[in-house]
């Protein structure tokens, strides 16, 4: 009996040993066949079990503390068919109501935690990386899309207004239906809500709501007026009408600009009236200028100005005399009309230029200037009287105005002299009449003018005698050889060209186009530094060129004595004017 029990124990122990040893041997054999990468993944999986357990514990704590703040699921996109317009409209309204304030979430609980935002961004990047997409490239593309859509809603609202106005044009005239009233109300509300918004961030919450209301009204209008071809025709007509209105506004702005350019500022008008009153208050013998015996002296430097602007004449004379190395040899000849003759004379009687000689004359004194000349100027049909004035065209009668002179420099009254001009008188005229700066250097420059822009070369008389590609030149500062002028009889040629407009509109108004014809092949080009143009309009003249120039010209409508003058160029004129302010009589307040 004892032997049987002993054998049972031995069998039991053997079976127990087999059950214990066999799994150990089997498992060790399997571990021996596992690769190093497999071991690493196996260990990470085991460690992940521990981290997930800890995460579950943390999330369970958060859920217990936030049971009352259940946030609804935000559906970014669900493709349930294209025809579900009601769902799309409701989703859009919810998005607008909750999304026009960036600091409030859909549940209205407040600002989202920055850690949650970081976690969401990490998940998005991770999902992109699984799709084999470069996350940096995706971020750049997202940034571009956000910049391009910064004013998307503003443009959409403007399009809604245009569409609503187009639908209104389909309604019968003087229609007062409920639908017309609704559209007019929506347009007014949306325009008031938009205001001057330039980007979506400038829009208020009410503007988003007005946009939704407008879209609903447009949807009903689309059902009423479903003819697309009629709508396209109406939009084209509206576009054409808008373009015409823009062009009309541009023409009106140009007209007003030219109107301001030819008006007299109040201060200048009061100064002229004051000087005129003082001129007639003095005795006739006190109205005479000194050194009149030098007026016809051929050994002196003679300059001429034809103007009725007392302040402009004062700046030209003052700048020339103050820049001259030898002002005693300067003689200024000023020709004006009878209306402004007393004021200009009184100015220079009160403020005589140091050592220089002044000669002032009336245009009415020239008996040889026939009335037919003024009639020919009036036929030029210009809205600007400056272009057709006798003073402007008196430059073509210089040999008759100054019969005892052989050479003269003619200034426009809108120039400022910044350098001594003595060397200008030594320019070799090469047997020609006019010395001027050319303005045909390169197309695109501010002072580039072509002859065919001012002269009609379709006229056979013009086309046979002149080349439209000939280099042009400018008035403003010109040196004239009066002896050669008399031999060439250019004044008679000018008079014949003045009659061209009798056959049609051949020449534009002004002295420049007819001057190009009268002095054709009679002009000597001067160095560009003698005369810089373009300070009377936005020409972009570099400051370095202005500083090097001997004469700067405020050609254009924005004269420096007007309020519309260009501020960055006004200083060149004001500095010369300020030298005479201390001598001029006080202005009216």
From TrEMBL:
Pathway: Glycan metabolism; pectin biosynthesis. Its EC number is 2.4.1.-. It is an enzyme of class 2 (transferase). InterPro entries: GAUT (IPR029993), Glyco_trans_8 (IPR002495), Nucleotide-diphossugar_trans (IPR029044). One of its GO terms (molecular function) is polygalacturonate 4-alpha-galacturonosyltransferase activity. It is a single-pass type II membrane protein. CDD domains: GT8_like_1. The keyword Glycosyltransferase applies. It is found in: Golgi apparatus membrane. GO terms for cellular component: Golgi membrane. SUPFAM superfamilies: Nucleotide-diphospho-sugar transferases. Residues 97-119 are annotated as: Disordered. Keywords: Cell wall biogenesis/degradation, Glycosyltransferase, Golgi apparatus, Transferase. It comes from the Eukaryota. One of its GO terms (biological process) is cell wall organization. Belongs to the glycosyltransferase 8 family. This is Hexosyltransferase. The lineage of its organism: Eukaryota, Viridiplantae, Streptophyta, Embryophyta, Tracheophyta.
